[in-house]
Amino acid sequence: MPQDRYATGLARLREIDGEAGERVVASLADIAPDFARYLIEFPFGDIYSRPGLDLRSREIAVVAALTALGNAAPQLKVHIRGALNVGVSRDEIVETIMQMAVYAGFPAALNGLFAAREVFGEDAVAAS
Fold it and tell me: How far is CA 57 from the centre of its chain?
């Protein structure tokens, strides 16, 4: 069973984040390989693989949550890229982040918008 969770999680991670997600996991190999495994099994193998929400909806929710936290810019950037990868538009991402100003405050929304601008800029550079 644990190997199935890992395989399912790794497939889902690749679907959402491609190589970026795998780099995060690889970066933990020398300090916390068990944590890297947990990162694959629980969020992606168990939660992201549940029925009930499609990947677009899940990534919109994650962008909102990470924006609201206000202290997770690296993770927010990964999930903004993931949201784009699963079909969320730039406008939808910006609107999601702006909505968080109501519930998490303007500083959190500003930080989220700056993270989105950075990701969108990286995409523009990569496309050229």
Answer: 12
**Residue of 106, 47, 111 lying closest to 77 (CA atoms):** 111
In a shared domain, residues 38 and 59:
no
Whether 77 and 36 share a structural domain: no
Domain count for the chain: 2
Residue 48: how many other CB atoms lie within 10 Å: 20
Residue type, 92: E
End-to-end CA distance of the chain: 44
Instruction: For residue range 60-113, list pLDDT tens digits in order.
Output: 999 999 999 999 999 999 999 999 999 999 999 999 999 999 999 999 999 999
113 and 70, same domain (yes or no):
yes
In sequence order, what are the residues at sequence separation of 6 or more whose Cβ sits closer than 8 angstroms to the Cβ of residue 16?
44, 48, 55, 59, 82, 85, 86
Output the CA torsion 122→98→76→49 (10° steps). Answer: -110
Taking the C-alpha atoms of residue 109 and residue 16, their distance in angstroms, rounded to an integer, is: 23
pTM recorded for the entire structure: 0.89
- 43 and 70 assigned to the same domain: no
Pair (91, 111) in one structural domain: yes
